[in-house]
Structure formats: structure tokens, C-alpha cells
Amino acid sequence: MQSTSIFEGIFKLLEWLTRIVLTNFIWLIFNLPISFLLLTIAITDDIPFIVMNLIIIAILSPFFLFPATSAVFGIVRKWVMGEGDIKIIKHFWTVYRQNYLKSLIGGFILVPLWFIGILDVYFLYHHNLFMTILLIIILFLLFIFTCYYFAVIAHHELKIFQAFKQALVFMIINPLRSLLMGIINIIILYVSLTQVTVLIPLLLGVALAYFAFFSYYNKLLRVKELQENNNEE
């Protein structure tokens, strides 16, 4: 009986690893142009070439990165809510199509903010330490907001600016949880991009989406619980 239980546990673990890797692989495939450009950046030290590729990535992101990431959030949403047994490819494509326009518009709004912020940090890094630190903090908050935006459009049928408002509100609710989620995801990004690059094809996108949606969904449940208690009173 104990051996059976161990084998069942191993099978369950392998099943989840397969789901995670498959979802992340699909995410990379749908981001193929951006994945290729990032790979070329990683193998060169030519600054003008890197800057040009970053500009191209910024232009492509609303069309590729945002819709694909939204689809990953749609899958992770099912997992967090206890619906693990879904057809991943079919559900990815369904969410991708349903949220494409909303993701695209969100990308058109958020990507320029990201690009300007990163560019400012790059140019101010050696000239104004205080402004550099301030901009890094702002970019960190923008990172948290972007994560919650994906969580909102994955979970709700809201118009674009309603989704932005919801993401901002939930970013402010329980700020410590928001900061924790942001720190965890930044660590995942840093480790994946600089230390253990094998994590990029295996779980990077899924891990970022999971911690972001888990944080958002727990806040949402807490808000609903408080509303129900207030109604009962």
C-alpha cells in the first residue's frame, strides 16, 4: 500500500511537471520572434545591436508577448481554482483568442511606459543615483501592476480601463502581499535570465503567472468574504 501511494505521488508530480513544461513551451512558441531576439541579445556585446533589438521587442510585445502571457494566466487560473485536468493546448488557444484584443490594447498602453522607464534608467544610471533608484522603484511597481492586469483580464470580463482600475485597486489592497509577489517574481526572472537559463523554456512564464494570479485570487476571495460579512451585519 505504501509503495502504491509513493508511485501515485510520483505519477502526480510528473503529470504536473508535464503540464507546466507544456504550457511554458507553448508560451515560448507563441513568442517565437521575441524569444529569437532575446537569444541574439544574450550572445552579443554590441550595444547598438542590443538597443535596436530591444526597440523591435518593444514594438512586437503587444502583438505577441501580451496575448500569449494572458493565455498562460488563463491556464494558471484554472489550476489555482482547483481545475487541474484541462486540455492545455485547447484552453490556451481559447483564452488567447478571447483576450487578444484586450491584451493588445493593454500592451499598447503598458509597453511604452516600460520602454521609457528602462531607457531613463539606462541613461541616468551613471549620472543621477537618486533618480535611478526612484525610477527602479517605479518600474517595480509597474511590474506588480502589469502582473495584476494579466490576472484581472484572465478572471473577469471587464473593459480595458475597468481592468486597469481593478488591477490598481488590488495592487493597493494588502500592499505587503503585492510586494511579496513582486519580489518573488523578480527573483524568478533574475535567476532564470542570469543564473539558471534552463528555467526559461521549462517554467519561467508559468511560474510568474502562477504567483501573480495566486496573490490576486487570494485577495479577491478575501474581499468577497469581507463583503459577505458586512452584508450579514
Automatic annotation (TrEMBL):
TM region positions: 21-43, 49-80, 100-123, 129-155, 167-192, 198-217
Stretches of the chain forming a coiled coil according to its record: none
InterPro entries: DUF624 (IPR006938)
Keyword Transmembrane in annotation: yes
Keywords: Membrane, Transmembrane, Transmembrane helix
One Pfam family hit: DUF624
Keyword check for Transmembrane helix: yes
Protein's recorded name: Membrane protein YesL
